[in-house]
Amino acid sequence: MDANASQRRNLHSRDTLVGRGAELKRITEAFESAEAARPSAILFEGATGIGKTTLLEAACTMARERGFVVCRATASPMEREMPFAVVQQLFEHLHQELAPDGDHEAAPHGHNVIAGRFGDEVDNFEEIHVHQAIRGVYRITAGLAQRAPLCLVIDDLQWTDVPSLRWLNYLVHRVVKLPITILLGRTSGVRPTDPILVAELEIYSERVKLGVLTTRDVATLTEQVLGRVPQERFTEALLQATNGCPMVSTQILTLMREQSVAPDDQAADNLITPDPGELGRSVLARLNRQSRELVEIAKVIAVVAPPDLELLAAVTDMNSGAAAEQVRQLEGMGVLAPEGKLTFAHSVLKDAIESAVGYGEQEELHAEAAQFLYQTRAPSPLIARHVLRTSSRLGSWAVDTLRTAADTLITEGDPRSGAKLLDRALQEDLSAVQRRDLVLRLGCAEAYFDPRTAMVHLEEGLSELDDPERVLAVVCKLSQILYLDGAYEKADEILRRTTAQIGPKIPAAIDMLHLLRKLTVPSRDPRAQDVDLHQFDEQEWRRGDPRGRRLAALIAEDAGNRGVDLPLCRKAALAAMSAGAATILQHPQRLVGVLNSLIRTDDLELVMRYCNEIVLEAHREGLSLIELLGHTVRSRAHYHCGSFTAAVADARLALSAARKARLPPDHFGNVYAVEALVRAQLVLGATDAAEQALLLLGRSEALPQTWQHTVLLHARGELRMERGDAEGALADHLECGERLESWGMGSPAVRPWRSHAALARLRLGQRQPALDLALQELELARGWGAPTVIGRALLTVGIVTGGAAAAQWLTEADALLRKSPARMLHAQVLLELAITRWEKGQHDAAGRHLTEARMLGDQCGVVVEPGERLAGMATGIPQEAPVPQSSEPTKVVPSDPRTNVLSLTPHEYRVAGLVLEGNSNDEIAHKLNVSRRTIEFHLTNIYRKLGVRRRTQLSAALAGYVPRT
After folding, report:
1. What is the extent of the structural domain holding 297?
2. Which InterPro entries match (predicted)?
């Protein structure tokens, strides 16, 4: 006999019921007990989606198979006020059989209750009539049990109406020696219609709490649904994704079956998830069966994520007590995590419910949350988070909140989020003044991550701006962006216009704008470069306010660029940093300018300290761009100190910050970091790595006319020189110098391009032009006065001069660099001085210089290998070097005695060694991973330096020297 036709579909038989073996066994035992006339009642309880209904359906199937009459009912919140609603569900399909001879009028109260027809005396449900009805239904139940074993199944017991609960308790107490099994299902956490009656029922029932699926259960379920044994990683991934919830696990596996996805490692890495909206609607439907209030609470927690009950109650329009009661029910149902945290038990539930809430409803919830938080004076970032999620016009209070929160985020180092808030504020109804203010703030925030969009907004906000101080601040920011983007003509136009606009109002700003224009716009007009830094009142730029520090930074940068007045440069740089590095974090160009100025004055220890502070602060606040610049400048400081491994590490950290900030390849920060990496790698001999780093920018020939690409020219020139391409190196260094001079950056402290160009000319045999460049650089370096800059220039003059005449230049460089932090530069000077002394026969002095050079090289992580150039001195055995050959008249330039084995570069000496081993040009090119043309170029230089004409003469020219292969 089928107790409910609607249950015939039986979607989940006990064959596919996983993880419920113990429960099914207990149900079987209950049926066996009932067949022996020993009635029993079992109450199954668990969270929503745990599988109570599926278990009860399986129990119904088992009961029918054993010949039980199955009577099933599902309680509902809608019917909990209807007397005997559950009793009617259980027996209503049997009422024709139960009424004696179809005489419904003569039927007892029990039959009328089941049939849904009540007499006048029953309709009023006075206590005596209710009791009569309970006894009548009990007698009917007992009568049915005497005819055949009876299985009574009630799902969602918590919503059972009170009269039905009273009957059920009466039945459990009275039934004895009858073949009756009572199976009940209850959602944990939900407050029952009558807690006392349910508690009484629990006393006389066996309570079984249903748990989540285990790893073994998930594997079994997967095999049953997909027909394949899952791999271990997939089982673990599915268990973690579903938290062992049978409902969600089954949905995922069903989707996999529909899409023919195997339960393997690949599926574990890309686990299919149910459609969030569909799953969310399913969960909300289950909650709605309990109460509408539970649905509203779940929606608000999913969408608004309230931090406390107060906000939750306000948005749901409940009092705090009612909201707390609903939260407790959701916790008990397993939907929310316990302990009142207002978070879902699993993220999949949160995402699913949020997806099921319409966009319009979500906006309304966020608008209500924002308004309540504003009225209760909550922190502006918390209010702004909700305002951002709604497009509703909220009024001036929302604008003020968004602006305040944006300022906080930008100050704390999150300009992207700050820009989102400002953009949302622009959607409100605004006055012209409010809009201009917000647009300017938005442009300043965008300058950190989207400079070209920032330009548009800053120019829009600048129009009709009356406050001269603010105009000056905005123009400084805008000119910085235009400078870094290479838009020099536009920057020139804006700076000229601003000078005319605010000059009469702030006369002191005219000279400052003139200086800013000089630093921003390249010009070949000498008059444009003529700015007397001493015209600025020192009290003005040392007063410590933002404008004073900005002016001090400009003075320091210009002094360092031009290589004039080192004491003024140092003093101005320190004034710019007087309030600490954190005060200049919002101005990237000025930050780099000031720190570079201190590098040029040899204050490297101070630069390191500032960079450490900047990197730490930028990392703490999440300022990726500033973090990038801090690492890049610190890499340059390490490079000048000779700490090349640390320089490479910092450059790599800078590039990592560039990726984190999602900067385009041609962004100045990215290019600046690559330049630092390339130069440090070259010193360490990682030529191929340096070349790969350079190629990351996608440019190998023409570079844009911007400052950052100009310094990259210098690094590329060094790489080409190392590769043996002296002509390419010379072209890069000369173009670099031409660009720098157009900015008025003639100082060799900026980039010693003249020294590098001089060495390239020397390599090409152009000795006199090389000497002219070297002497010009030395003159400029002496005018600047920093030991490192002068020492480098003296080294170049010594190398180009050569012979005995080099000693005086190198000796002076040695004395100066002992006061400098540039250890590797000092090592190079000592090595060249050792060569000069050795050639003059001063072997003891040469040995002392070489020993000190090697010691400094070890400190810098660079191996000084005298075996390539001074093998005799390295072993302490005096050796005569081959007689130098000179192809130029001595009356023009003194002959160069180092035009022999001692003048070979490491790469040239390695090529020569491979030739002596009998390798062909093609074999050498293959071993060194270069082109045949490069090897031929190296051999040409080797022949010229050694004064030989063919390969067979190399052995004699290199006699006594140990080749390095």
Report:
1. 216-365
2. AAA_16, P-loop_NTPase, Sig_transdc_resp-reg_C-effctor, TPR-like_helical_dom_sf, Tscrpt_reg_LuxR_C, WH-like_DNA-bd_sf
In the prediction, which pLDDT does 958 show?
Answer: 67
Q: What is the CATH number of the domain that holds 933?
A: 1.10.10.10
Residues 6 or more apart whose Cβ sits within 8 Å of residue 245: 49, 50, 212, 213, 346
pLDDT of residue 113: 76
Q: How many helices (H) and strands (E) does the chain have?
A: 49, 5
Where a domain ends, among 169, 185, 211? Answer: 211
Rounded to the nearest 10 degrees, the angle between the axes of helix 753-763 and helix 787-801 is 10
Residue owning tokens 């209807």: 82
Same domain, 251 and 303: yes
User: Distances from the Cα of 107 to the Cαs of 101, 130, 148, in angstroms?
Assistant: 10, 16, 22
Neighbours of 170 (CB within 10 A): 16
Q: Please write the tens of the pLDDT for every residue from 5-26.
A: 333 333 344 345 788 888 999 9
699 domain residue, yes or no: no
Closest CA to 553 of 571, 565, 530: 571
Residues 312 and 361 both lie in one domain = yes
Tokens of 629: 């610049």
Asked if residue 959 belongs to a domain, the reply is: yes
The neighbour count for residue 442, using CB atoms within 10 Å, is 27
Which of 325, 344, 365 is the endpoint of a domain?
365
- Which two structure tokens, joined as six digits, stand for 619? 């990392």
Same domain for 135 and 102: yes
List the 180-187 sheet strands across, edge first: 69-74, 150-155, 180-187, 40-46, 206-209
Which DSSP state fits 449? T
Helix (H) or strand (E) holding 110: helix 109-115
Structure tokens at 901: 């084995």
- Residues 230 and 147 both lie in one domain: no
Classify each residue of 62-83 as buried b or exposed e, where b means 16 or more C-beta atoms within 10 Å of its C-beta. Answer: bbbeeebbbbbbbbbbebbeeb
Q: Are 91 and 33 part of one and the same domain?
A: yes
- Single-letter amino acid code for the residue at 725: D
**CATH number of 57's domain:** 3.40.50.300
Partners of residue 184 on adjacent β-strands: 43, 154
Chain centre to alpha carbon of residue 731: 40
The pLDDT value given to residue 108:
57
The total number of residues shown for the chain amounts to 965
- In the numeric block, which tokens belong to residue 794? 């003296």
Question: How far is 824 from 814, CA to CA, in rounded Å?
Answer: 12
| Same domain? 233 vs 354 | yes
Question: Within a 10 A sphere around the Cβ of 702, how many other Cβ atoms?
Answer: 8
Same domain membership, residue 226 and residue 192: no
- Give a yes or no: residue 285 inside a domain: yes
SS (H, E, C) 828-847: HHHHHHHHHHHHCCCHHHHH
Helix ranges restricted to H, 705-822: 707-722, 726-742, 753-763, 767-784, 787-801, 806-817
The total number of structural domains in the chain stands at 3
Q: What pLDDT shows up at residue 106?
A: 42
Q: What's the pLDDT at 688?
A: 87
> Is 774 contained in some domain?
no
Residue 79 is classified by DSSP as: G
List, for the chain, all residue ranges whose pLDDT scores fall below the cut of 70. Answer: 1-16, 95-109, 115-126, 276, 412-413, 524-532, 534, 582, 586, 621, 698-700, 864-906, 929-933, 937, 944, 947, 949-950, 952, 955-965
- Cβ-Cβ contacts under 8 Å for 296 (sequence gap 6 or more): 316
Interatomic CA distance for residues 452 and 849, integer angstroms: 54
**Could you give the CA distance from residue 272 to residue 256 in angstroms, rounded to a whole number?**
7
Query: Would you state the structure tokens that stand for residue 186, as one six-digit string?
Result: 């209850």
Cβ burial of 106 (10 Å; 0-12, 13-18, 19+) is exposed
Q: In the block, which residue shows the tokens 């400084």? A: 476
- Rounded CA separation 494/499 (Å): 9
Q: Are residues 111 and 15 in the same domain?
A: yes
